[in-house]
Amino acid sequence: MHSKESPMYPTRHLTLPTLKQRTGRAVALAVLTTAALTGTGAADALALPATPPAAGSTATADSSATVTVTGGTTADAGALREGAAAPAAATLRDRIAAAARGQIGVTESDSACQKYLTGKGQTCRNTSWCAAFAEWTWRHAGVKSVPTTLLGRGVGKWGQEHHLFHTGSPKPGDLVVYGPPAYEQGGHVGVVVSVNRDGTLDTVEGNVSNKVAHRHIDPRTAKGGVKNWKISGYVTPPGA
């Protein structure tokens, strides 16, 4: 694991204008996103295949990987910060994972989490907001049909109603549901951002100790929610 100052990737600070000159704006943004998701340098990312990964592929992004954008416009930089969706060249699953990772560390202390509850008439200090965070992540990545319930187990029930709920083979971008699907309290929900070779998962979950947190879990034993439910299954994003 290397920080952005690591000499292993001396080209990581390639500016967006330089990349534009070499590749064009759309590809440059895709390159920078690939660098951020994989932990490679920008020049290394340029050498990766231009064809985006298939929707079923897994990601093993390092949550500490960062990329510095310098010399670009505000809009260019905005495409890679504050959980902004990844460029259109990335797959839907990539965009969901990038949006979720971009929110790690958001807390209740400064009400930064309130954006997940926009239009719901609630505050993140007086209601459980894990499901609202999951909904925000999907919506921010461009998913058209999203669950709007504030219940973690309710997300699973929504998935069943839309024939999107499954009990195995999770993929990045799926929502992981703790507790049997039902419109009842006591469960929890998060976003799968990486599926690892050893069967473990990396997730990003809202309302974990009052913040958005990264978790590295074994799906066979992981628990969540006030009732400490085990994982019941996953919900696939429509269109993925």
TrEMBL record:
Pfam families: CHAP. Residues 105-236 form the Peptidase C51 domain. This is CHAP domain-containing protein. Signal peptide: none annotated. InterPro entries: CHAP_dom (IPR007921), Papain-like_cys_pep_sf (IPR038765).
